[in-house]
Amino acid sequence: MLLKGHLVIEAVLAKILNHCGHGEEIWRWSFPQKVDKCYELGVIDNVGVVVSKDINDIRNDFCHSLGHDISFDTMYDFLIKWNSVGLDYGDDLDFTYEVQKEEFGIEGILDESMSYLIESLYADAVHFGVDIEVY
Fold first, then answer.
1. What is the pLDDT of residues 51-76, one digit of tens each?
2. CB distance 9 to 52 below 8 Å
3. Residues 6 or more apart from 108 whose CB is under 8 A from it?
4. Residues 6+ apart with CB under 8 A from 89
5. Cα–Cα distance list, 31 to 3, 6, 77 (Å)
6. Residue 64 falls within a domain, yes or no?
7. pTM (two decimals)
């Protein structure tokens, strides 16, 4: 789930950069470089930058450290951070620790957060005039 979500986020960023005239060179750029360039172009906001880079860091920890694990407390801290920077989780999400631990857990928080981030990046891209097909 984490790898697929990361790939979707990167695909949206690549579509934005292609739309802005960047060609194949973007595939040599690091993920954070793509995020920064989309921000510099004014397509994504600070929320997109912060959450995208954090998800990239989480992904890198899993991909580059054999046996890496993330605690619920760490994931919950990300949830609170992402909400505080403005990731829109909707009006009905209960952010209390106990509810999140019981109803969502680590994977649920990550899945919900990536879904809302992808939705936000997609909306920003479409607003900017980028044609993105959703399968």
1. 999 999 999 988 877 777 899 999 99
2. yes
3. 100
4. 83, 95, 112, 113, 116
5. 13, 10, 23
6. yes
7. 0.91
Kindly state whether residue 92 falls inside one of the protein's structural domains.
yes
Residue 41 in any domain: the answer is: yes
Exposure of 134 by Cβ count < 10 A (0-12 exposed, 13-18 middle, 19+ buried)? exposed
Cα–Cα distance between 72 and 78 in angstroms, integer?
Answer: 10
Q: Which domain holds residue 104?
A: 2-127
**For every residue of 42-97, which 3-state class applies, written as one string?**
CCCCHHHHHHHHHHHHHHHHHHHCCCCCCCHHHHHHHHHHHHHHCCCCCCCCCCCH
Sign of torsion over alpha carbons 45, 47, 50, 56: negative
Total structural domains in the chain? 1
